[in-house]
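#structure-requests
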Amino acid sequence: NRTGLYEPLLQENEREAIAELLQFLENRNHTNFFEGEPLRALSTLAFSDNVDLQRSAALAFAEITEKDVRQVGRDTLNPILFLLQSHDVEVQRAASAALGNLAVNTENKLLIVKLGGLEQLIRQMGSPNVEVQCNAVGCITNLATHDENKAKIARSDALRLLVDLARSKDQRVQRNATGALLNMTHTQENRQQLVNAGAIPVLIGLLSSPDADVQYYCTTALSNIAVDAGNRKKLAQTDSRLVQYLIALMETKSLKVQCQAALALRNLASDEKYQLEIVRCKGLTPLLRLLKSSFLPLILSSVACIRNISIHPANESPIIDEGFVNPLIELLSYDDNEEIQCHAISTLRNLAASSERNKKAIVEAGAVERIRILINQVPASVQTEMTAAIAVLALSEELKQRLLAMGVLEVLVPLTASRNMEVQGNSAAAIGNLSSKGEDYSPFVQVWSTPAGGLCGFLIQFLDESQAIAFQHIGVWTIEQFLDGNDPELVSRIAKSSEIVQAVTRIAKSGDRSKEAKSEKGGDDGNDELDGDIYGLAKRVANTLSEIDGDKKQ
């Protein structure tokens, strides 16, 4: 030839393989290249010493797998993995592309790693050729979506190389590397190995990338890393501006990046430090905008975030003043998504926790009326939060009569017989809070017998000896509040109920028996304080009921 260099002659079987392959390629739409003669022809070229034939095989594998991805066996993967070991960049590039295409299939992901493909790809990640790097990292990104592969990748040198390649100046390499890093953040152990490999500063640095996919992968990866308490401290130590970066990303054009930024802030807001910092860095305004959007993932991520932020008492008033209350009340009716409803009512409950002003603002915005309408239509998880919210609002001396006038007893009383223990307990606690230091007990008299067995049925049920001590305690304590209220009609109805009187007397007497039993055992079961409290309480109530009965007889 012109260069004067000797080119090896083709072997006879190689000539035949070329001829056969050309025929198969002409009829490619009806040919399965992963078995039989077509695969044998490709394998002959792949295992040839002739680099031109290897290129042809690699390119054919890349082109075929671009359109036809299916589960394949080792007979297909072995020639591709052999081609990956070539020193020729074109062969490497095409072979890594073919392997990446096949790695979309679940079964192939496992077999590729089993046959040593991970080690080959790690070698290709260090290639000076950007195309080879890009394809190798893309293939590892696909392999890392399988749980069985994640641990192997995490223990290999791939993590360090992925962190390095995430800094690549080539956007495709960067995109594939950050995508692979994201896929490694789904288990606690892998997240830790990722953090140890130095991923956090790289991921934070790439939040300002002009590429929306890179932003998305990095934001989501950081969100997953922030699930672990120890990692949240490392994030705080790495870059003090992380919260500001994420708040800025809630204003970006990409909806999926906005969504992940809010979720990352939600996970960070598991810590008190971040709950305060998000408010201080003006994160409430973009969160409210997302909360008001019509896109479900945005609503869910923002309401989950504000729920965590609202846990801190210092944030209650700023959130209310920002204008969250009415949109949160609207989300109570969002029956397409139970999680959104739960976060919305949980946030309202948090906002009402420590301020009379805030409780009043929530009631005046119509939250209780909305709860009253919805409470029997929502799932038990939402009912749990709604009854807990009423219990918190019912602690307000100023609002008690207002809540009673709204008819909350009509919904609370039946819910004390709910199948869900938390709903039962919260409903009973709300009734108990409403009963304490009341001005007008006529609303309680009105629900004495109905609905659903009425107040009387609730008290008898909670005083039953089969109930947990905590429930019996709520029952006895609520009766004491009614007796202290001294409403003649209500007190008379309680005293006339032989079941209530007998149940309270039984609890009072069982305290003495419990003490005797414990003294014989010579120890306690850790419930002394609660037990002693209920027995002392029951004795007081029993004595009061006995005095009322004595007064009647006189």
